[in-house]
Amino acid sequence: MTDTFERIERGIQAKHELTLLGPAIESLVAFFQAQHRELARKNPGAVQQTANLNIAMNIAENVRDYLKAIVADGDLAHEDLKRVRQIQDMSPEKRRHAELLG
User: Fold this and answer.
1) Rounded CA gap, 14 and 97, in Å?
2) What is the tally of structural domains in the chain?
């Protein structure tokens, strides 16, 4: 159960962090995309600069996606906890039946 509570807590923390950092990350990604387009227009042969922009954009997107994954895992852990508590509140007969159904 401790693992479930830790997952829920991490999910809550990540949700707050995503609320705070999400707009900044989106702004960074948009900035990198605009720089990429501008670079492609002005200097199509700037391979290293293009690669650097792509790396920076991928890092920003990966941070955002990582936070979203932690939030989703926390939500799943919360649903698991609710299911366990529902089963615990059942009569022994209903609990056996629920356990058989999986």
Assistant:
1) 36
2) 1
* Number of Cα atoms under 13 Å in the Cβ half of residue 50: 11
In this structure, the number of other CB atoms found within 10 A of the CB of residue 59 comes to 14
Q: How many helices (H) and strands (E) does the chain have?
A: 3, 0
- Report yes or no: 24 and 13 within 8 Å, Cβ to Cβ: no
pLDDT digit of tens for each residue in the chain (102 aa)?
A: 689 999 999 999 999 999 999 999 999 999 999 999 999 999 989 999 999 999 999 999 999 999 999 999 999 999 999 988 888 888 888 777 777 776
The residue segments making up the domain with residue 32 are 2-101
Closest to 51 in 3D by CA, of 63, 62, 42, 40: 40
| Amino acid sitting at position 66 | Y
